[in-house]
Amino acid sequence: MPPKTIKKRYWPEISLFRIERLSKEHDRNSFVCGNEALNDYLYKQAFQDIKKNVAIVIAATDESKRVAGFYTLCASSVERRVIPPLTTKRLPKYEKIPAILLGRLAVSVNHQGQGLGKRLMLSAFERCISIDMGWAFLVTDAKDERARLFYLHFGFIPLLDDVDHLFVTKQTIMEAMK
Ligand SMILES: CC(C)(COP(=O)(O)OP(=O)(O)OC[C@H]1O[C@@H](n2cnc3c(N)ncnc32)[C@H](O)[C@@H]1OP(=O)(O)O)[C@@H](O)C(=O)NCCC(=O)NCCS
User: Which of 40, 121, 128, 165 is least surrounded, with the fewest CB atoms within 10 Å of its CB?
Assistant: First the structure.
């Protein structure tokens, strides 16, 4: 069940992190989250994506500017045929529904289980809501079962093509953030 509301209450140490766009000032080299592909993305690909305007990368950084977590957002769409029927009923009859892709989200192993993932998810939700553009869903691809359960915890629902391909409606996000 999606959470009715997402409490904006953080552990005090977590609120010390700055949430900001990734920049060259940040130290990415010590970032390890337990998933090689996500580590490599931060080391090798993140700045390429920023430079080529295909994603924004938002980082949680500590007082030494070390990256403790990050997420990415970019424009996307979802094919109508993979959307559960209960949701399609409320949509216009377009083949593709405008969406935002939460491409990656990761927290350093040193900080996992302390609320930073939740803070990053809230930041992503807030950022999406404030974008002045039409979109109906936030979508993501869970890398493994643990990640899938994390997303389900925040109200994401599987699409029909793959249990790891998940979405949450803009309406659900707005209601949860009230
Ligand atoms: C998945 C990940 C981002 C979670 O970050 P985190 O900082 O450890 O999570 P938090 O401590 O902020 O937990 C936030 C909430 O989610 C819940 N949660 C965390 N991991 C969960 C899981 N695997 N299953 C279910 N709930 C989970 C927590 O209990 C907490 O609940 P609350 O809102 O009631 O307090 C982090 O473990 C990670 O980076 N893992 C490796 C990379 C990865 O798999 N990324 C996902 C992209 S596919």
Answer: 40
Looking at the CA of residue 146, tell me the nearest atom of ligand 1: 23
138: CATH: 3.40.630.30
Q: Residue 2 has what pLDDT?
A: 52
Q: Whose CA is nearest to atom 4 of ligand 1?
A: 117
The model carries a pTM of 0.93
Give the model's pLDDT for residue 78: 98
What distance in angstroms lies between residue 118's CA and the mean position of ligand 1's atoms? 7
Q: Whose CA is nearest to atom 26 of ligand 1?
A: 150
Whole domain around residue 80: which residue ranges? Answer: 14-176
